[in-house]
Write a structure and sequence with these properties.
Helix 2 links the parallel strand 3 and strand 4. By secondary structure, this protein is an alpha/beta fold. Strands 4-3-1-2-5 form a 5-stranded parallel sheet. The longest helix has 11 residues.
Amino acid sequence: KCKLIWENREIVIFEGVNTRFGLGNDLFDNAVSIKRVLCPSKGAFEKYNEIIAKAKEFDKSSLLIFALGATATVLASEITNEGYQAIDIGNLDVEYEWFKRGVTRKIILENKQVSEVSGGTKVVEILDKKYLSEIVCKIL
């Protein structure tokens, strides 16, 4: 049912540089388009003003999705006050991956940062052309 939120929508994902939200699964297959703004994996609040300014550059018809830890909550709240629709999506992608794989404990995901697992912050270089083409900005 979560997928219905972005069905036939243009989405903009603000995520940590190694989060790679939706990469390798079908979570966003029903979105019209995906744009990504890569932000710091840790300490994103230090770039708060830059992130919120970038968010305001997108059309208000876009759905803004924030996957930036505690910073996402504040960002989503502020940007909705500006007339945008925004979601602090948390760890939905990682939880979805574990669900799809049928695992019963948290595991490392090779292509994504998984902070909840020892060794989960070490990720491989990403060469996926579709994913790389979705990156429109880096705020690092």
